């Protein structure tokens, strides 16, 4: 198999073979991310993709599911993705579901009709790393799009019937802008129709712009308790009918439940954590993280 640089398997998806169709990240400029900083973005050679498909077919001939890599393979044009979908079906006749991570702006050059075709060929779900719905925050971390783009591109996915996850990066705006990040993200996400909202807590990884700003005294990160309070504010303002997951450093019973039915229980668990958890221990766990 051909894998280049970081290989990220979405831990919340059912296990499935991983097929790399792009290398690195087409953007690679977010100030909190170092995942693909050492990899130059490019589409994988079609010969590599064919060799990998042949290998997957020899090991898992009946697989019905694939995860496509790398950071944002949906950046490929409709024509490129269409060709890859056809190749996948040539080698793996039982494939029904192809999922992948995507940036919001990966969708913008594809029409609803093209999205419908890709869906009919198995691209049924995208994992959108939105991170925030607050324009100040999106700009500050150089995300490369605005909240209105999230609304516009998600509505195209809705029209085409492609499911999507939206992620919220807890702590991304630091202390001073925490409330706006939480409330405005919840407002934007609530106007979309994600099947999953996922949240993770910010870690200042080595080599990132945010860590450099922190060292210069220009970024004021939230404490562990502040992160949980921001997450609570986000959840209080969030309204959607789907699954909620979080890979915060604390482990409480918040995951994998229908959000609408469990919102109050999730908020109560979070408040219990805010009141009772050992924040020093949580800080230590977060500081030991080396990647997302
Ligand atoms: S967060 Fe996503 S889009 Fe931003 S640089 Fe990292 S991989 Fe690329």
From TrEMBL:
Sequence ranges assigned to domain Radical SAM core in this UniProt record: 11-241
Entry keyword Iron-sulfur: yes
Keywords per UniProt: Iron, Iron-sulfur, Metal-binding, S-adenosyl-L-methionine
Keyword Acetylation among record annotations: no
Domain of life: Archaea
Record-linked InterPro entries: BchE-like, Elp3/MiaA/NifB-like_rSAM, rSAM, rSAM_horseshoe, rSAM_sf
Required cofactor names: [4Fe-4S] cluster
Cross-referenced PROSITE patterns: RADICAL_SAM (PS51918)
SMART domains reported for this sequence: Elp3
GO molecular function: catalytic activity; iron-sulfur cluster binding; metal ion binding
Pfam families in the record: Radical_SAM (PF04055)
PANTHER family in the record: ANAEROBIC MAGNESIUM-PROTOPORPHYRIN IX MONOMETHYL ESTER CYCLASE-RELATED, RADICAL SAM SUPERFAMILY PROTEIN
Protein name: Radical SAM domain-containing protein
Species this protein is from: Methanobrevibacter millerae
């Amino acid at each position: 198999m051909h894998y280049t640089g970081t290989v990220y398997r979405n831990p919340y998806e059912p296990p499935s073979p991983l097929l790399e169709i792009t290398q690195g990240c087409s953007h690679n400029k977010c100030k909190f991310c170092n995942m693909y900083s050492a990899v130059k973005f490019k589409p994988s050679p079609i010969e590599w993709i064919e060799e990998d498909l042949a290998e997957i077919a020899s090991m898992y001939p009946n697989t019905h599911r694939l995860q496509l890599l790398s950071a944002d393979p949906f950046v490929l044009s409709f024509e490129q993705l269409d060709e890859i979908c056809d190749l996948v079906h040539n080698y793996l006749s039982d494939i029904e579901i192809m999922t992948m991570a995507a940036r919001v702006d990966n969708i913008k050059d594809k029409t609803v009709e093209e999205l419908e075709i890709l869906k009919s060929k198995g691209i049924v779900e995208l994992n959108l790393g939105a991170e925030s719905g607050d324009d100040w925050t999106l700009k500050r971390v150089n995300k490369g799009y605005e909240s209105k783009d999230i609304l516009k591109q998600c509505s195209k996915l809705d029209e085409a019937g492609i499911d999507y996850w939206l992620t919220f990066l807890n702590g991304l705006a630091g202390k001073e802008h925490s409330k706006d990040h939480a409330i405005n993200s919840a407002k934007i996400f609530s106007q979309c129709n994600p099947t999953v909202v996922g949240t993770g807590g910010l870690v200042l990884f080595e080599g990132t712009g945010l860590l450099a700003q922190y060292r210069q005294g220009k970024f004021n990160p939230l404490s562990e308790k502040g992160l949980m309070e921001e997450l609570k504010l986000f959840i209080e303002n969030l309204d959607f009918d789907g699954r909620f997951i979080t890979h915060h450093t604390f482990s409480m019973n918040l995951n994998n439940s229908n959000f609408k039915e469990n919102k109050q229980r999730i908020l109560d668990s979070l408040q219990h954590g805010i009141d009772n958890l050992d924040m020093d221990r949580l800080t230590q766990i977060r500081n030991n993280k080396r990647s997302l």
